[in-house]
Amino acid sequence: MRKLILLSIILMFSSYKIHAQKPAKPTSSNIYEAIQKLNFLGSVLYIAAHPDDENTALIAYMANHEKARTAYLSLTRGDGGQNLIGPEIRELLGVMRTQELLAARRVDGGEQLFTRANDFGYSKHPDETLEIWDKNQVLSDVVLAIRKFKPDVIINRFDHRTPGTTHGHHTSSAMLSVEAFDLAGNASAFSNLNNIVSPWQPKRLFYNTSWWRYGSREAFDKVDKSNMLALDVGVYYPHKGLSNNEIAAISRSQHLCQGFGRLSSRGSSKDYIEFLKGEPLQGSNSIFEGIDTSWNRIKGGEAIGAILYEVENNFNFSNPSMHLPQLVQAYKLLQNIEDKHWKNLKTKALKDIIQMCAGLYLEASADTHWATPNGLVTINLEVLNRSNTPITLVSIKKDNAVSISKDIQLKNNIAYTFKEVLKINENREPTTPYWLTENGTLGMYKVNDKNLIGLPETPRVYNVDFNLLIENTPITITKPVIQRYAKPDKGELYRPFEIIPEASVKIPEKVIIFNTSNQKEIPVVVKAGTNNIDGYLELNHPEGWSVYPKKQNVSIQNKDEEQTLVFTVIPPENQHEGYISPALHLNNKTFSKELIEINYDHIPNQTVLLPSESKVVRLDIKKRGENIAYIEGSGDVVPESLQQIGYHVRILKSNEITTETLSNFDAVIVGIRAYNTLEDLKFKQETLFNFVENGGNMIVQYNTSHRLKTDHIAPYNLELSRDRVTDENAEVKFLEPNHDILNTPNKITAKDFEGWTQERGLYFPNKWDKAFTPILSMHDKKESAKKGSLLVAKHGKGYYMYTGLSFFREFPEGVSGAYRLFANMLSLGKDNLENNSKLND
Ligand SMILES: [Zn+2]
Questions:
Q1: How far is ligand 1, taken at its centre, from the CA of residue 101, in Å?
Q2: How far apart are CA 501 and CA 529, in angstroms?
Q3: How far, in Å, is the centroid of ligand 1 from the Cα of 165?
Q4: Which end of the chain has fewer CB atoms surrounding its CB within 10 Å, N or C?
Q5: CA of 157 to the centre of ligand 1 (A)
Q6: What does the angle CA 451 – CA 453 – CA 457 come to, to the nearest 5 degrees?
């Protein structure tokens, strides 16, 4: 039910401007507000680093109260975080969060921009961030965004003067914004952008400060605010029936994969912006002071304004179509404006308003949501004029082909529907996010087409132009081809129309661990994008590995049907790793990409094509202990990973933790953040510690230091801190080189700490009882040695271990050393014969 309410609210706000697949059904109030925005010629650019950094209250305020054209420039797409609602991580998470930002902007009325910077994970300092990002490229992208969007005012979310106090990406976003503010207007800076954009100098730069910058509300109360503007972001909009802060909460709640579903609030609420640079305010309370935000701003605008202000002032809510003669008159005048920036922006807005005032419904719906090059698709067209204004559908044009003449007089409220066949160009590239088509670096996406840089998503390639005559004036309205369909349990739905390859391939398992030299059967799935595909499939493999059979025939009759083929993969004798990748050969073409769909209710469906490959790891690993109980925290794939190397793992719920149950296990592992998320685990601590006393091993993975549900996390005193080592290549020193945990059954060496991903670990303890032995020492650049990453305490006959090492990140990436060290942790003290008999080799 909650989802339904949310969805209907989103629908109300669905902007007709962005690629919302569902067409907006605007009310008179929506039209009136669009006219108010049309008559405001000022703009604001908000800059930060990640999806969720943006202050949606301020963006909503600028877009709806000030009526300014407002955009959020998020330097990254948030690829580095965790996904609370599905399996997508890394670049797929970036695709998802891009769409969540677009969904947020559809609610708050803003637009969305990006740079090529990749969210590579947590960074402590902007120095590190700007080393991993290509600083000059990101700066160039910020300059490009400013020159394209041409904001009057820029507002930074973060403070550029306080490096090291927040995520390095945050401070970097502010530092780059300050630098770009100085450069954007200088034609000789980034002159390579001159063929796309011309220089633009914004008038002012602000920092969106807050009490938390000063530690407390009391401290902020005492701060001199003469350099700040206070904005009441709690204003109420009667036309919407919503307060600005309510809109902000709905917008913020689009960040569902980050768990940002939020309560809304109402009532007056202050937001502060601090003046940083540009032309100082002369005491007025407007960020646009000294900027003409009326139609007089542009040459030839006065006459247009005279018409459009008249429409705004006398707007007819019961019959908006009566304004069409004036709107079309303004449209004609607008076509003579020299200033291309304003002409394009306002033409687009005015066309939308004309369409809304006429109640004009135009739709191009394909009979399928995807097709392949050379494919034929039937497009259902719907054209409907719901006004008495004479409108003629002169012709339609699809895919930039020749216009098809129609010459239909659209009578009031008579729907015209017809079908057209669209042939997909044989050279058409499949639909996929433009920033994922080339291999980038850790810090940067690679985009070869300069015109795409900064765009939130890949532009739709299939559109239909409706060439109309409205009030005897030719006006073309373009609609993307979509698919409209219905589901019995969901009602009417829309999804994007996409181009897919004739076939796609995938190996379901992304990391395959061979802990012995035994062969494994690896399934490969081929999916047909079109009917009747015939060819053969091969599986490429690293040297030293063998695959049988060499080739297998593939034959699929129906589009969307799948065929699974199984290959036998034989690993080498010794430790080794590499990648296997399928290649499907059809009619002299090779298909090696996986087609990934991202389907959620709150964002349009996404199709991503990525090279299909799986990591294969021949692990040289010995292990003792067999049966493991796993207590899940906030979710990780550690249990599946341990199963891959031959452990028997059973998930235990808190209420199943009893002495009797535990007696079946050699070890208990506590999942990440379990002491942050499980309310009742604290009542089971004594049972767990008794299990250790009786000879069991207990391994606790990282918990955050705040919001711990118990102080009694270990049998001995242990204090968590925020210490973390974010450099995944940081040198690891062995404090206890002779300890069993580094020697049996696997001899751990520096090599085992190679190839780690994203970080070494996080939330290491920084104080512990002398019962604990610290095993490893490591640190980030310019920091002191951190010794709390792996602590071991003998407790009775067993061992209690606490580790902030990121095993949960390393296992799914197939990092051998992480597996070998973890096997030693599980094996600690397990040297009895019974278990030895179960050794692998
Ligand atoms: Zn952030």
A1: 13
A2: 6
A3: 13
A4: N
A5: 10
A6: 100
Q: Which residues pair with 768 in a beta bridge?
A: 718
Q: For helices 168-183 and 135-149, what crossing angle results, to 10°?
A: 60
Contact 406, 400 (CB under 8 A): no
Task: Report the distance separating Cα 146 and Cα 224, nearest Å.
Answer: 31
Find the 129 Cα to ligand 1 centroid distance in Å: 13
Helix axes 28-38, 340-357, angle to 10 degrees: 160
Q: CB neighbours (10 Å) of residue 403?
A: 12
| 545 Cα: distance to centroid of ligand 1 (angstroms) | 43
Whole-angstrom Cα distance, residue 114 to residue 79?
13
Q: Rounded to the nearest whole angstrom, what is the distance from the C-alpha of residue 173 to the centroid of ligand 1? A: 10
Least confident of 278-292, 397-411, 467-481, 536-550: 397-411
CA of 175 to the centre of ligand 1 (A): 15
**Which pTM value belongs to this model?**
0.89
Helix and strand numbers, DSSP H then E, in the chain: 19, 43
DSSP string, 681-723: GGGGHHHHHHHHHTT-EEEE----SSS-S-S--SSS-EEEEEE
Within 8 A by CB and 6+ apart from 774, the residues are 735, 736, 768, 787, 788, 790, 791
Ligand 1 geometric centre to CA of 51 (Å): 7
3-state secondary structure of 417: strand
Average pLDDT over residues 817-841: 73
CA of 481 to the centre of ligand 1 (A): 35
CA of 53 to the centre of ligand 1 (A): 5
CA of 166 to the centre of ligand 1 (A): 9
What distance in angstroms lies between residue 78's CA and the mean position of ligand 1's atoms?
Answer: 8
**400 has a pLDDT exceeding 90:** no
Strand 228-232 versus strand 236-237 pairing type: unpaired
Q: How far is CA 560 from the centre of its chain?
A: 27
Q: Is residue 200 exposed (0-12), middle (13-18) or buried (19+ Cβ within 10 Å)?
A: middle
| 316 CB-near residues (< 8 Å, 6+ apart) | 322, 323
- Centroid of ligand 1 to alpha carbon of 70 (angstroms): 20
Lookup: tokens for 120? 């590579």
233 CB-side CA count, 13 A = 23
Q: How far is the CA of 746 from the centre of ligand 1 (A)?
A: 40
Asked if residue 130 lies in contact with residue 734, where contact means CB atoms within 8 angstroms, the answer is no
Query: Under the phi-then-psi rule, with left for phi > 0, alpha for psi from -120 to 50, and beta for the rest, what region is 399?
Result: left
Structure tokens at 693: 């006393």
Q: Locate 52 and state its tokens.
A: 């969720």
* Cα of 633 vs its chain's centroid, Å: 23
Burial 799-836 (b: 16+ CB within 10 A, else e): bbbbbbbbbbbbbbbbbbbbbbbbbbbbbbbbeeeeee
* Window from 64-68, 509-513, 769-773 with minimum mean pLDDT: 509-513
The rounded Å distance from CA 77 to ligand 1 centre is 10
Instruction: Tell me how far the alpha carbon of residue 169 lies from the centroid of ligand 1, in angstroms.
Output: 7
Confidence of residue 837 (pLDDT cuts 50, 70, 90): very low
Distance of CA 398 from the midpoint of ligand 1 (Å):
41
DSSP-derived secondary structure for 725-787: E--TT---EESSTTSGGGTSSS---GGGGTT--S-SEEEEEEEE-TTEEE-EEB--TTS--B-
Question: Cα of 49 to ligand 1 centre, how many Å?
Answer: 6
pLDDT above 80 for 109: yes
122 C-alpha vs ligand 1 centroid, how far in Å? 9
